[in-house]
Design a protein that fits this description.
The complex is a heterodimer. Chain A has four helices and six strands; from the N terminus they run ααββαββαββ. By secondary structure, chain A is of the alpha+beta class. Chain A folds into two domains: about 40 residues; about 120 residues, no CATH class. Chain A has a six-stranded mixed sheet with strand order 1-2-5-6-3-4. In chain A, β3 and β4 form a beta hairpin. Chain B has a domain of about 110 residues. Chain B has a four-stranded antiparallel sheet. A two-stranded antiparallel ribbon of chain B has the order 1-2. In chain B, a hairpin with a 2-residue loop joins β5 and β6. In chain B, α3 runs antiparallel to α4. Classes of the chains: A alpha+beta, B alpha+beta. At the A-B interface, α1, α2, β2, β5 and β6 of A face α1 and α2 of B.
């Protein structure tokens, strides 16, 4: 065999080895990718953070005693239960909205109503929004009276 | 290339395929063990559930009820129980049952009252529970009210009195 032929033979000989190397590299990439979690869904956490802000904030719907600077998180002041106050306390953002209902009182308010309706319509769409609901036993302060009620919260997050 | 060299190279290739398959199996096992040893998805929900249960207990104690024509709340009724248990325990059972019947999102529950480390009342309507407690003053020292939020309901099996 002349020198040129030897070189060609060696190159030809390397082709299966290169294919084998490609298979090895692709396998490693596939294995690593299939086990490493890259999707982080924090929508539930975001929703619960919003719920807590609504319940615990002195500027939210909770009863707030100015004289002792204390918030009563489980007591809802009926005078504070309105959309304007809620949206003033928590500046509306595009990707999260909520609907709050007092079941016994039959009252309903929204945080970010337009966004809520948009996101709610995209609930069952792939890549759409997610709804997180929460129910809480609350006391409603109507003047000097305390009344039992259930606060139903529906939060939708994009 | 002579015949001997050709056979040797084929043998090396064969072992390299075996080695590759072994590496894949080892990788797979390593990642599987890692996946089983700890959750890849971590939930941040439990602390929010605790907040809910604490609010339920606080509101339970603040809830107004009618006792002998007077408007009291559960905290005041529990204080009365520590003074005269026989007189007030039935009202307590009835009102507590009524209270939790309205909360259909709670699967099961228990309420336990402890006075100076001694249990004086215990109503059991659930099992597999997490406990939350509040302490308040009484005529004999301190009263501890423990609310258990349970995973399983036991239904109405009658009050358990200590």
């Amino acid at each position: 065999m002349n020198k040129k032929a030897i070189i060609s033979f060696n190159v030809m000989n390397f082709i299966p080895k290169i294919i084998f190397l490609v298979v090895v590299v692709l396998s490693i990439v596939f294995i690593v990718k299939s086990f490493v979690v890259t999707d982080i869904d924090i929508r539930s956490a975001e929703a619960y953070v919003l719920i807590n802000r609504i319940i615990y904030s002195p500027y939210g719907i909770a009863y707030y005693d100015k004289s002792i600077d204390r918030v009563y998180p489980g007591i809802i002041d009926l005078a504070n239960f309105n959309t304007q106050r809620l949206e003033k306390a928590i500046v509306p953002v595009e990707h999260i909205a909520a609907k709050l209902s007092l079941v016994n009182q039959g009252k309903r308010i929204f945080y970010n109503e337009g966004t809520y309706n948009n996101l709610y319509s995209m609930l069952n769409v792939e890549g759409g929004s997610k709804e997180i609901t929460n129910e809480l036993y609350v006391l409603v302060k109507d003047g000097d009276k305390l009344k039992s009620d259930i606060l139903h919260m529906s939060v939708v997050v994009k | 290339m002579n015949k001997k060299a050709f056979i040797a190279e084929a043998l090396v290739d064969f072992y390299s395929y075996i080695a590759f398959i072994l590496i894949i199996i080892v990788f797979f096992l390593l990642f599987s063990i890692q996946k089983c040893s700890g959750p890849s998805e971590r939930e941040i929900i439990s602390s929010f559930e605790e907040n809910n249960a604490e609010i339920i207990l606080l509101n339970y104690l603040r809830t107004p009820i009618l006792v002998e024509g007077k408007e009291l709340n559960f905290a005041e009724l529990i204080t009365l129980i520590s003074i005269d248990k026989e007189k007030y325990k039935n009202i307590f059972y009835q009102e507590t049952e009524k209270f939790f019947r309205n909360l259909d999102f709670i699967k099961g529950w228990q309420i336990k009252i402890i006075e100076e480390k001694k249990p004086i009342l215990h109503v059991i309507r659930g099992s597999d529970c997490k406990e939350y407690e509040e302490t308040m003053p009484s005529s004999k020292g301190t009263l501890k009210v423990i609310f258990y939020e349970c995973e399983k309901s036991l239904g109405a099996i009658g009050p358990t009195s200590l």
